[in-house]
Amino acid sequence: MTRANRLFAQAKSLFSGDNNNKITKFGTFAGVFTPDTLTILGVIMYLRLGWVVGNAGFWGTLLIIVLAKTVTVCTGLSMSSITTNIKIGSGGAYSIISKSLGLEAGGSIGIPLYIAQTLSAALYIFGFTEAWLRVFPTHSALAVSVTAWLILLILSYTSAHLAIRVQYIIMAIIGFSLLSFYLTPSQPSTDMSLLGNFSKAGFWQVFAIFFPAVTGIMAGANMSGDLENPRRSIPLGTISSIGITMIIYISLAYILSRIATEDELLTNQMVMVDKALWGPLVIAGIMGATLSSALGSMLGAPRVLQALAEQKTVPFYRFFSVKSKNNEPRNAVIFTGAVIVVALLTGSLDYLAALITMFFLITYGTLNLVVFLEQSMKIISFRPSFKVPRFVSFFGALSCLFIMFLINPFFSIVALVIIVLIYIWLTKKGLDAEWGDIRGGLFLVLAEKMSRLAAKFPRHQISWKPDLLLPIEDPTIGAGPLWLIRNITYPSGSIFAFTIQEKSSKKTLNELEELMAPLKNQGILVNSSLIEDVTFLHGTKLVIQILKGGTFRPNILFMTLGDNMDKDKTIIELVSHAGAHEMGVVILRQHPRMAFGMQKDVNLWLRDKSPNWHLALLVTLQLQLNWGGRINLVTATNDATEQKRLENFLQILGDQARLPFLAEYHVLFGSFEKAMEKAPRADLNIFGLAGSNIPIKSLRTIPENIKSSCLYIKDSGKENALV
């Protein structure tokens, strides 16, 4: 190939961004340092830093710069740490958050972040237009904006490599503009302002105006899918860009405080232009800064959108997830460009600037929070090669929240509400990630910490809630009593369901989980397990013994009484075993025809001077809470002289137990069999089990006599319905 042909091929590759369709990825300088630095060195540096110095003086400005940089330093360190722990995919911050807190959290942050970056590009183009019009005031503002947008769109659409090369040129222009200012011919002022009097704005207001100058550290992270080695490039490029730009800002603030008066700093936005060795070069720097920031956003935003689309978190994800052969998300670029031009045509976006800043701050805060959570969990999978102290991530997260409300409380709340709504929407979509995340582990760690705290305090009856132990012989049999179980445990109770087989079977476990699925869908905590044992009785006894030692242990053994009398001995033994291990017992005998009726009214039968009524009353109250019907306290006597005393007993008990006002009290005269005939109609009758002798035969006949399903309940001795 001749030299001329080689030069032609190189030029073609330069402007097409295509090198035989081979995907060429970026290193640290091109992919992270350059976009980060150019986004940080923006219009605020040129047009507002002088105003900050005029208000705060040099020492005040130094404090503002250090405070603002502290937030980005913490965020940069946190991001650097987590990128050395996980494999970063496309989308930068979105990828990090998704792989830690799940697709729903990642999407709820990623979608606003995409919008913020897209609208930021429009804001930067407006800034470029204003700078252009200072040089060419007769030009049409709309024409300048649209022309700049079109050039940037072509660059971002053609190739990220070409765009990065253009950013090199812009960086050189900004560098020469800064050099022109550093070589200022202006003489030092005799009244250098070391500490300003904040004549135009207070400290925090000045801080809020300056803070957007130090954002932009996501520009490189958003290119994560185009980096050769994200784990190395993101930490190195981000931290170095933060450090270098911090030195630049401090040096500029010092020079401005030396060469300009307070009045000049407060009233002249172009003070850097006027004081520079050659002013037009600084104006070129202002234009270059706005263009580079806009280009960085137009490179990063489509990549966030494409990453969102890959995980189906946005509508039309098939269209947006498409990449060209050289790894360019061109469909996402086209859509992003369309959104930007619509924003340009609608006019100034100043009123959205605060909301855009909120989304960036929420992203930074969430990144810090993710790292803080993983550090706090002390899980072995979090072992980054770049480690930071835990207070760094905690301070970064807290600072972002504080600064949000400092800048604009209203837009802070609006931004948080938007993110919560997006999270709810994504949760309903049922997204399925290809990776695991820390959410389940996070709540387990919290539960473990809380259980350790709870173990330090005695367990009191005032905190009682129904936690059922549910042995199931055959998971394939219909789920008749499940709705009753739901109404006993909902909303705060739990269920531990298990079945027993001689050999473990995945099919049986799946059948058990399928049986329990309706209760899980009701929001009840349900755990299912298959126990290997020779007999049902022995296996159930072992489960009762083992679970007694747990922090979250069941307190009620729930069993059903069927027609098979061969199982009566098993039921009697389990009732005795449960009592010996401080567990209450509920036995259901379901009426074959009446079932649970209208699921409204409950009869609670009480025997005078019996201590076994606390659990029965608590279960009755749980059912009334969910059924919303009437509670009837019922007792029977053969002695007519006892009727008044028993009425007072029921009334006092109802008052002490704080029964609902719909509760009624019934003292029935005659034998128990006669009393059942006179009892008020109810959808469920509840009786206490006394002593160790359980009349199984009677338990079977009572439902037919009283024409309703029945619950037979035995206290554990740990319940108290009067607290």
Give a verbal description of the structure.
- With 723 residues, this protein is of the alpha/beta class.
- The protein folds into 2 domains: 3-429, Amino acid/polyamine transporter I, CATH 1.20.1740.10; 461-714, 3-Layer(aba) Sandwich (Rossmann fold), CATH 3.40.50.12370.
- It contains 28 helices and 10 strands.
- The chain has helices at 3-16, 28-40, 43-47, 49-83, 93-101, 103-135, 141-158, 160-182, 203-210, 218-221, 230-259, 262-267, 271-275, 279-310, 317-320, 330-346, 350-377, 390-407, 409-429, 439-455, 482-489, 506-521, 536-548, 568-580, 614-627, 643-656, 672-678, 696-706; strands at residues 467-471, 494-501, 525-532, 556-560, 584-589, 602-605, 631-637, 664-669, 684-688, 709-714.
- The chain has a 10-stranded mixed β-sheet, with helices on both faces.
- Strand 6, helix 25 (614-627) and strand 7 form a beta-alpha-beta unit.
- Helix 2 (28-40) crosses helix 8 (160-182), helix 7 packs across helix 14 (279-310) and helix 21 (482-489) packs across helix 25 (614-627).
Describe the structure using short key phrases.
723 residues, alpha/beta, Amino acid/polyamine transporter I, Rossmann fold, ten-stranded mixed sheet, 28 helices, 8% strand, disordered N terminus
Write the layout of secondary structure elements.
Layout: H1 3-16, H2 28-40, H3 43-47, H4 49-83, H5 93-101, H6 103-135, H7 141-158, H8 160-182, H9 203-210, H10 218-221, H11 230-259, H12 262-267, H13 271-275, H14 279-310, H15 317-320, H16 330-346, H17 350-377, H18 390-407, H19 409-429, H20 439-455, E1 467-471, H21 482-489, E2 494-501, H22 506-521, E3 525-532, H23 536-548, E4 556-560, H24 568-580, E5 584-589, E6 602-605, H25 614-627, E7 631-637, H26 643-656, E8 664-669, H27 672-678, E9 684-688, H28 696-706, E10 709-714
Parallel strand pairs: 1-2, 1-4, 2-3, 4-5, 6-7, 6-9, 7-8, 9-10
Antiparallel strand pairs: 5-10
